[in-house]
Amino acid sequence: MTAAIAGIGATEFSKDSGRSELALAAHAGLAAITDAGLRPSDVDGMVTFTMDANAETALARELGVPELTFFGRVPYGGGAACAVVAHAAMAVATGAASTVLCYRAFNERSGRRFGQVHTPDGVDNGWHYPMGLVTPAASVAMFARRYQHEYDVTSEDFGRVAVLDRRAAATNPNAWFHGRPITLADHQASRWIVEPLRLLDCCQETDGAVALVVTTVDRARDLPRHPVVIAAAAQGSAADQFTMHSYYRDDLTGLPELGLVGRALWAGSGIGPEDLSALVLYDHFTPFVLVQLEELGFCARGEARHLLADGTLELDGRLPLNPHGGQLGEAYVHGMNGITEAVRQLRGTAANQIRDAEHVLVTAGTGVPTSGLVLSR
Amino acid sequence: MIEEAARELAARGESARRVARDPVNLPMIRNWTEAIGDDNPTYEHYAPPAMAQVWTMPGLAGQRPADDPLGAMVAVLDEAGYTSVVATDSEQTYHRYLSPGETVEVSSRLDGVTGPKRTALGEGWFVTTRSTWYVGDEPVAEMMFRVLKFRPSGVAGTAIRPAVSSDTEFFWAGTALGELRIQRCGGCGRLRHPPGPMCPSCRQTRPGYVVAAGEGTVYSYVVHHHPPVPGRAAPFVVALVELTEGVRMLAELVGVPPSEVHIGLEVRVGFSRVDGELTLPVWRRR
Ligand SMILES: [Zn+2]
Fold it and tell me: Which Pfam families match (chain A) (predicted)?
């Protein structure tokens, strides 16, 4: 790859920002541009999520970005997280733009809450929502039940993801759950949301914004920050893919679209699972963290629960997982805060810094067409 | 659960007698007959029989007694999601006239609870109570009172509706007729759910359908607790079912307590009519 992440920015993570989503996007965007040592007038491209309410034109007006030669959007909710960086990298690689601002901003707690009941359009949704399967938690719970059934996985196995995330968040001052670790007993005592998911299996709802600046590696080397190279970026949609409801495949215990992303990342970067310093796996709901570990080849099918139980993935383990606390612990900004955490780890500026971090894997939303990144120092 | 509670409440028999706030009295009779517009001169001497209930009304700030069977049954149905209420009918029987100065007492019992019934308002239960007014030990009047406690899901506008296209309308036309339809390719015969316009096996665009036998087994399921869902009372079960024809299909599983649901449970399709425009498939235990 010839592209790098040159700057990152974010707002505070809260439950009530008190500002418009556009104000959040502008704040995070300006912070990322400034962090890169650039000016808004240097930006000539923008990429965000289809779900983002802030038009590129609106954000360009606020920031005083005069001209855009490239802009695009990526669909499928949190599945877009790493994909916006992939699109930006392709734009700078082809010369469609030189400096691309990627952003995601929402008042997802004080405004439209993802955890509440919605009635989305689209014929595909008609096979699920009217029947009473009405929240993302419910959609994931259907997979989780089958996964439990086939591999004898328990609620406690899911709970270890939450405990791990909250332990890391407890020592990350930017995390919403800073200073508030939980125990497995806390997880087991938390109420059912949609069985087999408990409250503490579900990520938080957050008001906030994250932005980052992608440019060429050559250009990034001339900027003040140590560039974080995009070693590989990939998107994936697999056979018989639905959004949140890929219930009609032979097997319900995998995430083939993520397996596809993983294979592309290893092939594209020349880096394999054994070379990674840390993992940032998308954790909107705990069960899919286990499935991701299996799908990406860190362990065999049905074995991820052992990786979570044996300490491998702890901050002081061989392969730390979500050192910022993940979306369960830090904030839920549709996976974008996971990318900025990887950048901080590779710069050596993270709250829970992994020693000598060289390569970090980041994944995007699961249960939907997804994406991933391998970032390198 | 509802039927059990109803049996238990009915078995309690009559509630403790509640004494009228005031004896039968002429000023109240006058107010009532003037409001009703009844100038029958008899009511200078006797109370109108239809006033039986008036004498034991608890007043604006009054509260239902704890052992009132209607209050208890309403609470059970509220809890089960039948949160709306409408009075349907009432019959009163008078044994004799009441005279000013007499003090009446009232007592109620639960006569019966029937349901669930599909009504124009939505699915609900009819709750029938019987009240008896006494002077001393003598019954002087009786009343049968029936309400419908219903789940407001059937009310148009609250149900989540599917987006229907020309590719999928056959399915919803089927549910309205009590048929569970599975798309069948007119070219290669492949069965497919959810349906679509082009067969992914042979790429022909001649979809037809077969009517499923409607039987299958639970492949996976969830028990929804939070957040509240309009028209459904938590906890409720949604199950992904593998039909004997080989396709999977999702619907609510009704009539089975969540604790008894398991992967492999044998189910049969049923149909839940929301209104004139939408009928949903549901699973029931086979
Ligand atoms: Zn065909």
Answer: Thiolase_C_1, Thiolase_N
